Amino acid sequence: MVKTETKITLTVGLDENRVPEKIEWCAEEGSLENQAVKAVFLSVWDSTKREALRVDLWTKDMPLDDMKKFFHQLFIAMSTTYSRATSEEELATEIESFGNHFAKQAGLSHKGAGDF
Q1: Nearest CA to 62 among 20, 30, 98, 95?
Q2: Prediction pTM value
Q3: Per-residue model confidence (pLDDT) at position 111
Q4: Domain tally for the chain?
Q5: End-to-end Cα spacing for the chain
Q6: Residues 34 and 53 in one domain
Q7: Is residue 50 part of a domain?
Q8: Interacting residues of 6 by C-beta distance below 8 A, sequence separation 6+
Q9: Which residues, 6+ apart, have CB-to-CB distance to 31 below 8 Å?
Q10: 20, 24, 63, 96 — which has fewest CB within 10 A?
């Protein structure tokens, strides 16, 4: 039985061609209100169909270098989440290794351990 609820809201402003120009998100629990962002990748699991559903959006003025950094950080976050969810450290390390390989291939400069 659900004891409490919270909302996460995305608002997307589109141009005349329905291309995102502005993205904002709100999260009641995180005290975020209309925070502007340049990209969002939202994935959910449909347990009935046993498949991932997703919405990937980015504004037309998102810089390419920022998109590369975003992808790298997503790969690293997936590694961490996979490790916590499954305790399969070897495969989590493989995901992290791929993320770091991606960063090198994308030309991201190394700034510190795990950070590109």
Answers
A1: 20
A2: 0.85
A3: 58
A4: 2
A5: 43
A6: yes
A7: yes
A8: 27, 28, 29
A9: none
A10: 63
DSSP 27-79: ETTTTEEEEEESEEEEEEEETTTTEEEEEEEE-TT--HHHHHHHHHHHHHHHH
Where in the sequence is the domain holding 68, given as residue range(s)? 63-108
Is 101 found in the same domain as 46?
Answer: no
- 67 and 50 in one domain? no
Q: What share of the chain is helix, strand, coil (3-state, %, to 5)?
A: 35, 35, 30
Residue 115 inside a domain? The answer is no
For 65, the token pair is 């270098």
Cα separation of 83 and 96, whole Å? 10
Question: Which residues neighbour 11 within 8 Å (Cβ) at sequence distance 6 or greater?
Answer: 22, 23, 24, 25, 26, 34
What is the 8-class DSSP label of residue 110?
P
**Are 48 and 30 found together in one domain?**
yes
CB hemisphere CA count around 29 (13 angstroms): 5
Token pair for 52: 């991932």
